[in-house]
Amino acid sequence: MKTIARPVFAETEEKKSRFLAELVFHDDLAQRVSELRVLHPKANHHVTAYRYLNDQDQLIEHGKDDGEPSGTSGVPCLKVLQGRDLINVAVIVTRYFGGTKLGTGGLVRAYSGAANAVCNLAEIIDYIPQGEAELFASFSDAGTLEQACGQDGIDVLDRQFDTAGTRIKIAGPRDILTDLSERFPVPETD
């Protein structure tokens, strides 16, 4: 699976209709659509499609036509995301009507074309599942723990010290978290 490094924008045109496409992180979708509705009050449609993994690692995907004829916009955009195996992303295509009706086939081509255009500009990277973990080390091993938490991609969220040692909460790639959790397990309490 793949994802994007950062949000990206592209604009296409079909028979004088303008299609403003944005590829964003799924977590930012609702807020970005709200912003676009304010930024583009005269736009006719804000079509969306998304794919993400929920907390149980289930793939959730959907396309929304936002007033366009059923199946002519959201699903074609979703198919672009599926074809590129993108995850945890959303595409938003804002349409300004140009005065010429595109017809069903024209809408499908225009929306999938806009989604492809924005995906072509995106920096596509490998998707690496992320998570959080809590680690523990006695004071004699605290330096080793700190060094292990200094790896690229690991963010320290919290540090706590008590009489037994140090407890660190981290976020980062799940495979690294699993390894560190085995090396620095949190002792069980009664």
Summarize the SSE layout with pairings:
Elements: E1 2-4, E2 8-14, E3 17-25, H1 29-39, E4 45-53, E5 59-64, H2 74-83, E6 89-96, H3 103-121, E7 124-126, E8 130-138, H4 142-148, E9 155-161, E10 165-173, H5 174-183
Antiparallel strand pairs: 1-7, 2-3, 3-6, 4-5, 4-6, 8-10, 9-10
List keywords for this structure.
single chain; 190 residues; alpha+beta; three-stranded antiparallel β-sheet; 10 strands
Account of the protein in words:
The protein is 30% helix and 37% strand. The chain has 190 residues and is an alpha+beta fold. The protein has two domains: 2-126, Impact, N-terminal domain (Ribosomal Protein S5, domain 2, 2-Layer Sandwich); 130-183, no CATH class. A hairpin with a 2-residue loop joins β2 (8-14) and β3 (17-25). The longest helix has 19 residues, at 103-121. The two termini are 41 Å apart. The mean pLDDT is 94.
The CATH topology of the largest domain turns out to be Ribosomal Protein S5, domain 2
Specify the CATH class of the largest domain: Alpha Beta
- What form results from the Cα inertia axes? elongated
Main sheet properties? 5 strands, antiparallel
Determine the structural class based on helices, strands and strand pairing: alpha+beta
State the helicity in percent bands: 25-40%
Tally of individual domains: 2
Q: Specify the number of helices.
A: 5
CATH superfamily of the largest domain: Impact, N-terminal domain
